[in-house]
Amino acid sequence: GQNIDQPTEMTATEGAIVQINCTYQTSGFNGLFWYQQHAGEAPTFLSYNVLDGLEEKGRFSSFLSRSKGYSYLLLKELQMKDSASYLCAVLDSNYQLIWGAGTKLIIKP
Amino acid sequence: DADVTQTPRNRITKTGKRIMLECSQTKGHDRMYWYRQDPGLGLRLIYYSFDVKDINKGEISDGYSVSRQAQAKFSLSLESAIPNQTALYFCATSSQADTGELFFGEGSRLTVL
To answer: CA-to-CA distance for A40 and A58, rounded, in angstroms?
Structure first.
């Protein structure tokens, strides 16, 4: 079966750095996506990785290792507004998105 | 105004009632999707459509039906609602070139008593 694993919840301190991991086992791979979802709101697109390596976009970076079936989302200089759930999703061989359950990130002052 | 609009945003109904959730978009995208989200679970795909004449079942289509009335409109129906269909429902769109980058509506929270 297809499976995406990410931690259920993480806590970090304002101004610090946090890394949210995602491991996947899917039938084929056509890219990995990270989305941010604030409580009660719609998910919004954060990043896309299809090749191995690090993609940086401001305070957020996303890393991919296809051989290990592994990705992480790195958030730097955490702000209170970063409190949200972060969803990892993989585009499989049929170009269908397979979603993880999401990681709820709690930021403390 | 939102690019992807869902109505109603909240609905409480009773078991056995027919419910329709509507979605309209102004992004000009051909691809539209209906997902449900439950606590502790990932987004699960109910139905998707790649153009007006194309309708496909997703992972959990049983108990649901859809209609693609136009490029911009995609409706989800629950013919006879049951309590385990209580969930947050999202409509989403994508362009053909960016299949993994979805644009979501604000969600429709449905409660079936």
So the answer is: 25
- Average pLDDT over chain B, rounded to an integer: 94
Q: Which residues are registered as beta bridge partners of B88?
A: B37, B109
- DSSP 8-state code for residue B80: S
Mean pLDDT of A21-29: 95
**Which residues 18-57 of chain B have a CB within 8 Å of chain A?**
40-45
Summarised one tens digit per residue, pLDDT across range A40-96 is 899 999 999 999 999 999 999 999 999 999 999 999 999 999 999 999 999 998 888
Q: Do B44 and A97 touch (CB under 8 A)?
A: no
pLDDT for residue B98 = 67
Query: How far B23 CA sits from the closest chain A CA (Å)?
Result: 14
> Any residues with CB less than 8 A from the CB of A38 and at least 6 apart, and which?
A83, A84, A85
Q: What is the DSSP string of A39-107?
A: TTS--EEEEEE-SSEEEEETTEEEEEETTTTEEEEEE-S--GGG-EEEEEEEE-TTS-EEE---EEEEE
Question: How far is it, in rounded angstroms, from Cα B63 to Cα B82?
Answer: 9
Query: How far apart are the CA of A24 and the nearest CA of chain B, in angstroms?
Result: 13
CA dist B92 and B48 (Å) reads: 9
Residue A65 near residue A55, CB atoms below 8 Å? no
Q: Which A positions 53-82 lie with beta carbon below 8 A of chain B?
A: none
